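Regression test attached.
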Amino acid sequence: GDSVTQMEGPVTLSEEAFLTINCTYTATGYPSLFWYVQYPGEGLQLLLKATKADDKGSNKGFEATYRKETTSFHLEKGSVQVSDSAVYFCALTRIGAGSYQLTFGKGTKLSVIP
Amino acid sequence: KAGVTQTPRYLIKTRGQQVTLSCSPISGHRSVSWYQQTPGQGLQFLFEYFSETQRNKGNFPGRFSGRQFSNSRSEMNVSTLELGDSALYLCASSLPGQGAFSYEQYFGPGTRLTVT
């Protein structure tokens, strides 16, 4: 079945540091890929997405490129802020039987210190 | 436009009881999905409803059920609660028809269920 593997956390960075959170996936066909972010006490917010190979999703300074050859979708940000502290989830969806289902990674907790 | 709303936000139940959680999707959204989030298992798909029909179901026991109403609001029910059902239950809505490859789900804040 489908699966998503992302790097174990927690990750602690100083403000303005460079961020990379690795994500790899296993799926048949051509899944769409997503990064979601969850702030304390809240639900998930869609951060960015990519729907086909070589697509680059970007939002709020975050970027991720859909690499089919390496089945990866790594999240990057050039300069993190304290407000980026949250849990980040990599996810995929693949159409099956006319239904949409998200498969998530375990999540990576990011803490940014001033 | 109002986001996905879930009620109640917090719930404490006793083992063996049953519980019903409610989800109101974004106006115009016709698909509602439910997910369970726990520290050990992470985020797991429960089921998806579209136009009052269950289209897909995750690997959960029959104690977990749901339904969707004609206004797209959805409820999920858990019967004979077990301690392991303690979790954050998230509801997500979407607008199928935008295209299979641009599908996005919008999540509510969740219902925190504690079983004692």
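Expected vs. actual: identical. The CA atoms of residues 23 and 81 of chain A lie 21 Å apart.
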